Amino acid sequence: MAVRKKKIQNIKLVDFPEEVDEQNGIKVYGETSWENQLAVLSQYLHNNVYIGDEDSKQEIIYAIREFLERKKSNKDEEITDEYVIKVAENPIAYNLFSDFFKVPFPNPKFGQHTFIDLFAGIGGIRLPFNEMGYRCVFSSEWDKYAQQTYLANFGEMPFGDITKEVTKKYIPKHFDLLLAGFPCQAFSIMGKMQGFADIRGTMFFEVATILERHQPEAVLLENVKQLTTHDQGRTFSTILRILGELGYHVKWQVLNALDFGLPQKRERVIIVGFRSQQRCDAFNFDFKKKTYNLKEILEDDKDIDPSLFASDMILQKRQKQTEGKTVFYPSIWHENKAGNVSVLDYACALRTGASYNYLLVNGQRRLSSRELLRLQGFPDNYKIAVSHGEIRRQTGNSVAVPMIREIARKIDYILNNI
Ligand SMILES: C[S@@+](CC[C@H](N)C(=O)[O-])C[C@H]1O[C@@H](n2cnc3c(N)ncnc32)[C@H](O)[C@@H]1O
Q1: Pocket of ligand 1, candidates 141, 184, 221: which has the most ligand atoms within 8 Å of its Cβ, to mutate?
Q2: Does any domain span residue 147?
Q3: Are residues 49 and 154 in the same domain?
Q4: How many Å lie between the centroid of ligand 1 and the Cα of residue 186?
Q5: How far is the CA of 184 from the centre of ligand 1 (A)?
Q6: Of 113, 133, 337, 380, which cross-links 176 as Cys (Cβ 3.0–4.6 Å)?
């Protein structure tokens, strides 16, 4: 779908009900924090399709004013209404917003197809679609560190909590594809649920609601493999049935990152749906297996931060745990919850909450931030904008990018040819 370009026209500044949130010291416009204003501003700069009504116009202007206030070098300088309006009318003409565009993965200017990125994390699902020229028209992710990583790489601040209507209101009416690696914490209740109304309170409900309201042509969902077997498969059947009720013909498959050229055993279920039966029929999960090579993702030990090397105590423990085992280099040593160690030429799935020492390169050290990103297939120009601890969490939550890339290519072929 071609992107509609609208300019802000006939701007008048109005007075907003402005409050100060005493506790956080942030300005609030209605229910909107500065982070939300940054989302409004950055998503407007990249893509202004959601500007429809007077309210959203005013919100953008308000966000621009706030941005200019924060950017000014002289605190006594007055930001006049006339200046704010001029900038808002043609923001790109002003050299104020270059940081939103000088990023490794800017949104394509004239994407033929559009998508929204829900539960966006650090954009692992988005990345291959951007590469193919697809244009993101809305993103949502509420974790502030993931937002920082996303902003640094895509020049776009995701909106926050997707369960809130104040967030969902920014989703443009039309887009072609919904992407979501939705969180799976609500499994415990989902199995007993039958219909659409019953799944309220789960993150899948948010996905279903947005599909119902916007009816994009295609959907791509990603989740842990256990989703397919939870509660004897009932949870998964509920999800598939609801997608069917919403008008989607779907196919699904459990895929393993190891088969996509990454040295990581990470099994995930992928669900792909189309409104057209014919398109769904044409889709398949046949991929040519690629080989992986652990050596390719490892950095030289001499470039590794010394704090990542394990203590003598851990090293001695590992020596004992691997007695009699074949040890080779390079390898990743895994300690499971029972304290057993295996030595493999790939990593087990990166996990957010796992112990710091559960994966050790050659039994000696933890993986660096860059290695963690490479294990998920992120290119080396992907920016690291947060601490190592946050990168561990973010990569553990993210996806195998090459796996998504292969699926994205198939979806693209189908949207363009069937
Ligand atoms: C499984 S991760 C998806 C990661 C993503 N696919 C990536 O490539 O990084 C789920 C994400 O959903 C976010 N999340 C959970 N609940 C949310 C909510 N109510 N609104 C927005 N984001 C939410 C979490 O912070 C987490 O980053």
Answers
A1: 141
A2: yes
A3: no
A4: 13
A5: 10
A6: 113
> Which residues have CB under 8 Å from 254's CB, separation 6+?
225, 228, 267, 268, 269, 270
Identify the residue whose C-alpha is closest to ligand 1 atom 19. 161
Atom of ligand 1 nearest to the CA of 399: 8
**Is residue 307 in a domain?**
yes
Mean pLDDT for the stretch of residues 61-77: 88
Residues 198 and 304 in one domain: no
184: annotated active-site residue: yes
Question: Of 71, 100, 129, which closes a domain?
Answer: 100
Lowest mean pLDDT among 122-126, 174-178, 228-232, 364-368: 228-232
Asked if residue 342 belongs to a domain, the reply is: yes
The 10s digit of each residue's pLDDT in 308-367 is: 999 999 999 999 999 999 999 999 999 988 889 999 999 999 988 888 899 999 999 999
> Do both 329 and 252 map to the same domain?
no
Task: Tell me which of 36, 118, 119, 184 to substitute to probe ligand 1's pocket, judged by most ligand atoms within 8 Å of the beta carbon.
Answer: 119
- CA–chain centroid gap for 402, Å, is 15
Block residue for tokens 């993702």: 297
- Position 61 confidence tier, pLDDT thresholds 50, 70, 90: confident
Lowest mean pLDDT among 123-127, 190-194, 406-410: 190-194
Give CA–CA dist 76/69, Å, rounded. 10
Please enumerate in sequence order all residues whose Cβ is within 8 A of that of 386, keeping only pairs 6 or more positions apart, or say none. 145, 148, 149, 394
Domain count, the chain: 3
**CA 418 / ligand 1 centre spacing (Å):** 32
- What mean pLDDT is reported for the chain? 88
Distance between CA atoms of residues 73 and 70, nearest Å: 8
Tokens representing 404 are: 């998504």
pLDDT one-digit tens code per residue, 91-102 = 888 889 999 999
Beta strand ranges found along 123-239 (DSSP E): 135-139, 177-180, 218-224
* Ligand 1 binding site (Cβ under 6 Å of any ligand atom): 119, 121-125, 140-143, 146, 161-163, 181, 183, 203, 397-399
Domain of 298 in residue numbering reads as: 294-397
Specify the range with the lowest mean pLDDT, choosing from 94-108, 121-135, 211-225, 242-256. 94-108
